[in-house]
Amino acid sequence: MNQNKNIEDIYPLSPMQQGILFHTLLSPNSGEYIPQVCLTLTGLLNIEQFKQAWEYVIARHQSLRASFHWERREQPFQVIYRQVNLPWQQQDWRNLSPDEQQDLLKNLLKTDSQQTFNLKKPPLIRLNLIQLTDQTYKLIWTQHHLILDGWSAGLVIKEVLDVYQALSVGKQFSLPKIRPYGEYIAWLYKQDLSTAQQFWKEQLKWFTTPTSLRIEKNLNSISHENQPEEQQVKLSQTTTSTLQSFAQKNQLTINTIIQGAFAILLSRYSGEQDILFGATSSGRPVGLTGVESMVGLFINTLPVRIKVPGQAVLISWLKELQNQQSEALQYEYTSLLEIQKLSDIPAGLPLF
């Protein structure tokens, strides 16, 4: 197909896409924005029908056919292609022992996460299906965060499995009609920025120094080999139930409690009472019909400014924080770069 005829649409980036593109270009080898999903599939699998299911879902969603461009334009933009090739790999490890399979899988996941994407060549995903036994498979789905958030990734997986299920039993299938990601971008650029700018300017008024953990960060040194260590902590069922009960009793969300605890922690580490950190919002506007089933990058990172007093009634303080969160969500469409320009923090320093 002719390159121009294969173009379906062209539109700007969302605020979060702008930020991720900036950091990707600043540190292209970090792998920070290349998440992986590793699924275990059991039972008889018709591989051709499974591939067809992926092709159907990719054709259904604009974001899965997007490329990104930033040269010779004042603002970066994304190009949506009508058709793209499915980036598919397939391997058969049935002759290997379980231990050998585990070692190979571990190495493959690491190698795959270090493989960058050409942002100008869609789709920004790749699939690798590995057969472990006659009825056991591993699917590695790697994507660039520019095109998807966690909510959207879950929608894609569900749709692929629904389509495959229908194909495998010879049923007609018809997924619900969805709105293209471009309609969200159009909505985004119609919002009243002046009101949002005034809100964030007031929120950050007189905050001049980023909250510091006294940890130096050199962006130029970030690579796959020296990524920060991650530690996952699973709360016990008792602790989780206690948190849920406390939240329900005091009409608080778990998110509010976690943010409050994090603010207290930052206050103690930094020695400051006026704290600023970033928090992720879903970015899916309630007023946009059908947004819950749209696939793309909607999340945004917003500044959360909290004053941690030496003496305060905990419940009242948390409720004040929750009210602040609700108000901020009205303006969650604002670009973090734009918010930073409105702050009193000197140019060249990060917000958090």
UniProtKB/TrEMBL annotation:
- Condensation domain residues are 8-346
One GO biological process term is: lipid biosynthetic process
SUPFAM superfamilies, A to Z: CoA-dependent acyltransferases (SSF52777)
- Which Pfam families does the UniProt entry name for this protein? Condensation
Give this protein's Gene Ontology molecular function annotations: catalytic activity
The source's superkingdom equals: Bacteria
Which CDD domains does its entry note? DCL_NRPS
Q: What is the protein's name according to its record?
A: Condensation domain protein
This chain's source organism reads: Lyngbya aestuarii BL J
